[in-house]
Each structure stands twice: as C-alpha cells, then as structure tokens.
Amino acid sequence: MAIVRKEIIFHGRVQGVGFRFRACNIARDLRLTGWCQNEYDGTVKAQVQGEEENVYRLIKELNNSSYIVIDDVDIKNLEVDYHDSGFDVKY
C-alpha cells in the first residue's frame, strides 16, 4: 500500500472532549504518524501520514466516540514526509 499524508480539519464538538488524545492513541495503534492541534476557530487540525485506508479508519474511529461529534472534515493531500515519526499532540 502507498503511504499518503493528509491535512484534516475536523469541525464539530472536537475541543474540550479529549479529541486530540484519542486521535493520538488511535493513530499510534494504526501506525500513523503526524500531529494534531486545537485551532482558535474551534476546529482541530491534523496532519496524518500512513496507509490511506488507516487514515480514513482514524476518522471513522474518532466519530464513534460518545463525546466527540464530527460534523464535517476538510481533507487536503500533502507531500509525504519520509522523516516523520510518531504521532504527537501540539499545544
């Protein structure tokens, strides 16, 4: 499978509900790399890299939380960063 990198903006009830830490745990389980951070407009921005199927699995699993409500996602393709390792929460 090819490796992809995506920038994902999550809209909805995504701040103050453990979203970033849940994203980090799921991403690590799926062997994805990248990061996520809260934005001033109430969204969460993430850059996620790995097998494309696992990137979309991350979104699906995040949407299955009882506290997190994802109303919409904006997804943009990015250039793969072959030096990227781990998945982190940015502050």
Overall pLDDT level: 96
Strand proportion: 35-45%
Number of strands: 5
In the sheet with the most strands, the strands line up as 4-1-3-2-5
Order of helices and strands: EHEEHEE
Q: Rg, please?
A: 12 Å
Instruction: Please tally the helical runs, counting DSSP H or I stretches of 4 or more residues.
Output: 2
Structural class: alpha+beta
Low-confidence runs: none
Q: CA-to-CA gap between the ends?
A: 32 Å
Shape from CA axes?
globular
The major pleated sheet works out as: 5 strands, mixed
Summary?
This protein is of the alpha+beta class.
What does this 3D model show about the protein?
By secondary structure, the protein is an alpha+beta fold. It has two helices and five strands. Strands 4-1-3-2-5 form a five-stranded mixed beta sheet. Strand 2 and strand 3 form a beta hairpin. Helix 1 packs antiparallel against helix 2. The longest helix has 11 residues. It is globular and about 30 Å long. It starts with a strand and ends with a strand. The relative contact order is 0.35.
Ordered list of secondary-structure elements with their pairings:
Elements: E1 3-13, H1 19-29, E2 33-38, E3 44-51, H2 52-62, E4 69-78, E5 87-89
Parallel strand pairs: 2-5
Antiparallel strand pairs: 1-3, 1-4, 2-3
Helix pairs in contact: 1-2
